[in-house]
Amino acid sequence: xxxxxxxxxxxxxxxxxxxxxxxxxxxxxxxxxxxxxxxxxxxxxxxxxxxxxxxxxxxxxxxxxxxxxxxxxxxxxxxxxxxxxxxxxxxxxxxxxxxxxxxxxxxxxxxxxxxxxxxxxxxxxxxxxxxxxxxxxxxxxxxxxxxxxxxxxxxxxxxxxxxxxxxxxxxxxxxxxxxxxxxxxxxxxxxxxxxxxxxxxxxxxxxxxxxxxxxxxxxxxxxxxxxxxxxxxxxxxxxxxxxxxxxxxxxxxxxxxxxxxxxxxxxxxxxxxxxxxxxxxxxxxxxxxxxxxxxxxxxxxxxxxxxxxxxxxxxxxxxxxxxxxxxxxxxxx
Length: 333
Prior knowledge:
5 helices, disordered N terminus, single chain, five-stranded antiparallel β-sheet, 21 strands
């Protein structure tokens, strides 16, 4: 794993404002590639309102290019039941088509990462809050809803809906800087255009942690994976030095490139988003699955042991996450 993110521990003082609880998380920076690339965005774990009484007894984390699974065991060490909001925030998703576009796992669904959660074996139906913000932090969600536009511009038919807006609605979007039109004539609807806001989505629900008891929370989702669409030139290997791609890995890649087309898949996980429980994680276990036996896995963390044809694992006790987990898998098509 490459640990190169910043500590994102955030304190919570009350449950009075849901906006405070559902504060944005930082988007994990992606390595810079050619124009035919999609950005990797790192989601992470669950967030609790800051508690001095709830400890994370264990976290079992599974990471792969196609799925993230996390199993938590929380213990309320106080003498009273604690009811709090649990949130799963996604990274800010830039909607600008002219920049590095992100490919969502299921772009036409509200739950576009297929987030699912159970508590003590029972399915929970979390609420989903979606907001749209400009670069200067202005919430433009109400404006877009008023005009009948989805906040997620990757939804099917979104561009057609914009082109079919009444003239006043189109001009409102342009005047407020919500559309970036690629022509001097801002009223030319035949020109290319893209939205300028970021989408901020957060799942959340109310959870009670009974006094002195363990609560088991399991969740899974499909990661927002990045990677160049075409990987043919050996010079592109230089783009992956941030994943500690060494001579052995490069040699394996050269052999794989002679046999098949290569798809590099970048995965990022932000373990620090929810570090507001009491103390460290007492028992932490990580599994990284490259999914194909002949795929090449590259990352910078030491201590991983190969446990199967595609899996690598490590365990830690009294673990305090400080940085992001990032890796790249080079898969044959």
